[in-house]
Amino acid sequence: MSTKYETVIGLEVHVQLATKSKIFCGCSTEFGKAPNENTCPVCLGLPGTLPVLNKKAVDYAIMAGLALNCEIADYSKFDRKNYFYPDLPKAYQISQFDLPVAQNGKIKIETEAGKFEIGVTRVHLEEDAGKLIHEGSIDNSKGSLVDYNRTGVPLIEIVSEPDMRTPAQAKAYLTELKLIMEYLAISDCNMEEGSLRCDANISLRPIGQEEFGTKAELKNMNSFSAVEKGLTYEVKRQKDILESGGEVVQETRTWDEALGRTISMRGKEEAHDYRYFPEPDLVPLEISQEWKDQMQAQLPELPRAKYQRFVTDLGLPEYDAGVLTGDRELAEFFEAALKDYNDPKNLSNWMMGEFLRLLNENNQTPLDSGITAQNLAKMLTMIDQDVISGKIAKEVFEKMYTTGNDPEKIVEAEGLKQISDQSELEDIVAGVIADNPEAVEDVQNGKDRAIGYLVGQVMKETRGKANPGMVNQLLREKLKS
Asked: Which residue intervals define the domain Asn/Gln amidotransferase in the entry (predicted)?
């Protein structure tokens, strides 16, 4: 990053709300339908149609505002944002301008450089536009098709203050914001399906200057790493322009992942270019204190509060708490298992080790796997009760993952129960001692590591089913005599 210029970044994040129907009509919001299947005269903007507001969308917008520490408006309204684009059938978008549902919030983030607080300017409701499908790349297309299925899908737009100073902060902000939305369960935040989209405004200014520089807006970034890479590229591009004596042009640019650079799309519009005016077909929105209280009561424990509780009340290391609370499904799975197995650290070790390994290898979420929280708790209890060894448990766990079977049934069917019968183990240990005179001599000469080799031979002989603690004890007793 430049030491002469300061980077200023603000983000506009569109979050698709998880309602079953659109914001102003009864059409389905289901993803993946045939082009233009989820449409009707209302969302296509045909003459004579009128919008009707979906209350669930407002509920979700209020919840988002509360979770982001915003002030929830008593009085809000909708506006027409006028612009012509092929994916906008009415030639205007119903959005909110001067009286959003929520404003003046904040999010706490953390990067390697420290902890920061990022302001949230506003959270407002709006309808989504359609989707243009370009024949070729976006900057060199021979033609475009339009799918209106997404038109009218409810969105909240979350606008940050220009408080971020590095691309890493922007990525951390997005990560935290996405996690909060997932915990609220108001969106699936699936970037591949367009449920979460981010536009970034970035400018440079000489260090010490209060006035902002000329900004560029970056669009079409479909991952958090793309946001970080796009912003990093843009810092260098703008710095090179300024240091060569040129002027940065206010414009909208797109990030091209294949080329690894941003590309100019068009000049950037200002608010007055959209000719906002109050939406005449919708009555203003009055949000009572009772309504706010109802939404407040529905808020779940949010990720930062859960993280703190895992550290303070459960005694987990900060790293463990960060991994577990960094995914809502994982955190919920952990807490469900904890009800039947009250050893947070051992449970955490298994989830961050074997469980995450299998999830990552199979590109699955906890709910996709065959493992249930109750069965994991049961398996860990079997280890503690010496029914199976830790080594055998890994084999059992993989079978649980792929089959969904109960661990007790797997152990019984596969004959994996740990051998803890002393007389049976004594015979096996005696045989291993007889077959390994050199290792025995090493132990008797004080080379204690040779005990490990003998234990390994017993475990090999029993296919890992021998109780390793008992084996170690028996070997030491017999080699002393």
From this structure: 332-479
Q: What is the 3-state secondary structure (H, E, C) of 333-371?
A: HHHHHHCCCCCHHHHHHHHHHHHHHHHHHCCCCHHHCCC
* Lookup: tokens for 37: 């299947």
The encoded tokens of residue 386 equal 């010496």
Chain-centre distance of CA 97, in angstroms? 29
Q: Which of 66-75, 255-264, 438-447 has the highest mean pLDDT?
A: 66-75
Q: What is the pLDDT of residue 192?
A: 82
Contact 120, 106 (CB under 8 A): yes
For 335-380, what is each residue's pLDDT tens digit?
A: 999 999 999 999 999 999 999 999 999 999 998 888 999 999 999 9
Q: Which amino acid is it at 180?
A: I
Whether 253 and 216 have beta carbons less than 8 Å apart is answered as yes
Which DSSP helix (H) or strand (E) runs through 10?
strand 5-16
Residue 284, pLDDT score: 95
Where b means 16+ CB within 10 Å and e means fewer, 49-58 reads: eebebbebbb
Name the strands in the sheet holding 114-127, side by side, starting at the edge strand that comes first in the sequence.
71-72, 102-111, 114-127, 154-160, 5-16, 196-206, 216-221, 251-256, 261-267
Q: What number of other Cβ atoms are within 10 A of residue 118's Cβ?
A: 23
- For the chain, give the percent of residues with pLDDT over 70: 88
CA distance from start to end of the chain: 70
DSSP character for 271? G
Residue 462 has pLDDT above 80, yes or no: no
Q: Which stretches within 219-353 are classed as H helix? A: 224-243, 289-298, 303-312, 318-325, 328-338, 344-350
Asked if 221 contacts 256 with a C-beta cutoff of 8 angstroms, the reply is no
Check: CB of residue 214 under 8 Å from CB of residue 207.
Answer: no
**C-alpha angle with apex 74: 68 to 80, nearest 5 degrees?**
85
| 205, β-bridge pairs | 6
Q: Where are the domains of the chain?
A: 5-291, 301-414, 422-480
Are 314 and 344 in contact by the 8 Å Cβ rule? The answer is yes
Closest CA to 463 of 399, 378, 407, 389: 389
pLDDT > 90 fraction of the chain, expressed in percent and rounded = 64
Question: Does the pLDDT at position 265 exceed 60?
Answer: yes
Find, among 252, 102, 255, 103, the residue nearest to 167 by Cα.
255
**Residue 258 to residue 190: CA distance in whole angstroms:** 22
pLDDT at 1: 45
Query: Is 130's pLDDT higher than 80?
Result: yes
